[in-house]
């Protein structure tokens, strides 16, 4: 047997044309498969991301891309948005539209905008909060078109939590009126504004008469109901823009911005009448309550809110000494 070396495999250069074509086709198919896998992966990622990715052509004022999350979050058709940018404007909550448009314009000047927040109205009428980050992208391969790109996240649950925390921090849990700290913070701002603008302002203190007797006779649960009904009287009697809060156990306070002395007196008297009309029942016994009020108005010599509070407090205790169930003005 002859000892012969096997022939080496043919190199691509030595391949016949048909084999080269087949190899090139196989490489092309493999590359197409890889690209298809990447595209499918990218599409899957876009579908799973719970945020709206978008791109906007500034020159033509057309939305040129929006990710699948748009339809989930906005509850609107992506096709309609891509066909007409007016769909975006129509989805913005009316009170937030000016801000949303103004902040989008600022992207051109600043290059980027972080965390602009605004509300949208879904097609089903539900209102949602969005946080939108956007920046300018110049696309060289498209004739240097000015493209604004961004990502919008639904932050409704975060906003609801913030609102609830704010409510808990500023509201008296039992009566749902302002708590002491929040009331005096707001009252201080109104005092400063009244001093600055020279407008009238009135301060009122109200204390429930013989409240300890109510608790001792009918129980603390009935006492809590009395406090809640007083707060309801305050909310129903005061004007829009007036402040009302529970600042102590059975003590409430009110501030009437822009309210002349005569009008402040009328409001206090109306509140007094509403409290006198309240009726409670416990174990077959019906009882009512009264309150003593101290009312004062901002004067030229008043340099602090504490001055008003002190006068109203003294007037309220004077009403107590004079027989309760009355208003003392100072």
TrEMBL record:
Pfam families: GGDEF (PF00990), PAS_3 (PF08447). It catalyses: 2 GTP = 3',3'-c-di-GMP + 2 diphosphate. It is found in: Cell inner membrane. CDD domains: GGDEF, PAS. InterPro entries: Diguanylate_Cyclase, GGDEF_dom, Nucleotide_cyclase, PAC, PAS, PAS-assoc_C, PAS-like_dom_sf, PAS_fold_3. Its main location: membrane. Gene3D superfamilies: 3.30.70.270, PAS domain. Residues 114-167 form the PAC domain. One of its GO terms (molecular function) is diguanylate cyclase activity. Its cofactor is Mg(2+). Its EC number is 2.7.7.65. GO terms for cellular component: plasma membrane. Residues 199-330 form the GGDEF domain. One of its GO terms (biological process) is cell adhesion involved in single-species biofilm formation. Residues 38-111 form the PAS domain. NCBIfam families: GGDEF, sensory_box. This is diguanylate cyclase. The lineage of its organism: Bacteria, Pseudomonadati, Pseudomonadota, Gammaproteobacteria, Pseudomonadales.
């Amino acid at each position: 047997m002859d000892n012969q070396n096997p022939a080496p495999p043919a190199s691509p250069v030595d391949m016949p044309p048909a084999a080269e074509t087949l190899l090139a086709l196989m490489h092309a198919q493999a590359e197409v498969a890889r690209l298809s896998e990447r595209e499918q992966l990218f599409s899957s990622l876009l579908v799973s991301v719970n945020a709206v990715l978008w791109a906007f052509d500034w020159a033509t004022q057309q939305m040129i891309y929006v990710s699948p999350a748009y339809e989930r979050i906005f509850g609107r058709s992506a096709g309609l948005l891509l066909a007409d940018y007016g769909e975006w404007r129509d989805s913005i909550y009316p009170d937030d539209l000016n801000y949303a448009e103004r902040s989008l314009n600022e992207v051109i000047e600043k290059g980027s905008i972080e965390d602009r927040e605004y509300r949208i109205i879904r097609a089903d009428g539900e209102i949602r909060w969005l946080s939108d980050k956007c920046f300018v992208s110049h696309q060289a391969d498209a004739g240097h078109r000015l493209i604004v790109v961004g990502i919008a996240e639904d932050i409704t649950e975060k906003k609801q939590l913030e609102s609830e925390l704010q409510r808990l921090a500023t509201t008296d849990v039992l009566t749902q009126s302002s708590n002491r700290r929040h009331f005096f913070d707001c009252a201080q701002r109104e005092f400063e504004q009244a001093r600055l603008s020279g407008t009238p302002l009135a301060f009122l203190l109200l204390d429930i008469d013989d409240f300890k007797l109510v608790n001792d006779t009918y129980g603390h649960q009935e006492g809590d109901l009395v406090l809640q009904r007083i707060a309801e009287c305050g909310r129903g009697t005061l004007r829009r823009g007036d402040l009302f809060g529970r600042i102590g156990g059975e003590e409430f306070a009110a501030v009437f911005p822009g309210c002349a002395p005569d009008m402040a007196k009328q409001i206090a008297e109306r509140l007094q009448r509403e409290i006198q009309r309240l009726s409670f029942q416990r174990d077959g016994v019906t009882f009512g309550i009264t309150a003593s009020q101290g009312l004062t108005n901002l004067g030229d010599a008043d340099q602090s809110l504490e001055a008003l509070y002190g006068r109203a407090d003294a007037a309220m205790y004077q009403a107590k000494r004079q027989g309760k169930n009355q208003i003392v003005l100072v």
